[in-house]
Write a structure and sequence with these properties.
Number of helices: 10
Mean pLDDT: 83
Largest sheet: none
Distance between the termini: 26 Å
Shape: globular
Low-confidence stretches: none
Order of helices and strands: HHHHHHHHHH
Number of strands: 0
Radius of gyration: 19 Å
Strand content: under 5%
Length: 241
């Protein structure tokens, strides 16, 4: 008889807080402090320009989202394989796929809390830029980056290196071979992460502007597809490999 996977929820939550949540909060705090100093020095004795703060935050939102997702899913599967923890974790009959899927959901929730803390800190200590859509954007971005990170954690022990390399290489490829100029690149670019959507979407949500539904579907759909493929592989692949 299988052990209900929900019994591991508190362990996943505790692991996230200690191993990922605290580093995320520290990184986000450093971001807020750096921005507060930079923008307040620029503003002098006057208030921080809200329009300028919005542009700066839109640029940083993608960094916060990517960094948060990378930390949140780093080693989510590969660490157990690398250190042999899977022999202890699955000594009882429990669904391996459900176990790691639950870990991914907990990481998503934890990253969302850390993202909310970052946005709250920015609004309180830097400039009163409040955009409810920003939190939704961070969640969508987490799905895109985290889904790919989950897949890479299933197939390689160097998942965070591979994730960073793929994301940067994709950005460079999209800049060097824009789809509107290179028709042959369109199909290939569809297989790569939609990195080109991040900056426009983050700026739009902070300004309260409309975000294209197809862009949101593309961003989320890419991550969901990668995550589902990761779940399929983790069911079929031996963790001892």
């Amino acid at each position: 008889m299988r052990t209900p996977v929900t019994r591991y929820l508190r362990w996943h939550a505790a692991d996230f807080i200690v191993e990922r949540g605290l580093p995320l909060l520290i990184v986000n705090t450093l971001f807020v402090v750096q921005l507060a100093v930079m923008l307040r020095v620029k503003a002098g004795d006057g208030p921080v320009d809200r329009a300028a703060a919005t542009i700066v935050l839109s640029s940083l939102l993608g960094v916060v989202g990517f960094t948060g997702a990378m930390i949140a899913v780093n080693g989510i599967v590969s660490n157990d394989r690398k250190h042999g923890y899977f022999r202890f974790l699955f000594a009882k009959p429990v669904s391996v796929a459900a176990y790691y899927a639950l870990a991914f959901v907990v990481s998503a929730a934890g990253m969302l809390v850390c993202g909310a803390a970052f946005l709250g800190g920015f609004a309180r200590y830097v400039a009163p830029v409040v955009a409810p859509g920003a939190l939704l954007f961070l969640m969508m971005y987490f799905v895109a980056v985290g889904g790919l990170g989950f897949l890479l954690s299933v197939v390689t022990r160097y998942d965070w290196i591979a994730l960073g390399a793929i994301w940067v290489a994709t950005q460079l490829a999209r800049d060097a071979f824009p789809a509107e100029r290179y028709a042959a690149a369109k199909a290939l670019l569809l297989l790569l992460p939609p990195t080109h959507l991040v900056q426009p979407m983050s700026l739009a949500v902070l300004r309260g502007e409309h975000v294209g539904a197809l862009d949101g579907i593309w961003l989320v759909g890419y991550g969901v597809a990668a995550f589902v493929l990761g779940v399929i592989l983790v069911r079929r692949r031996s963790l001892a490999a």
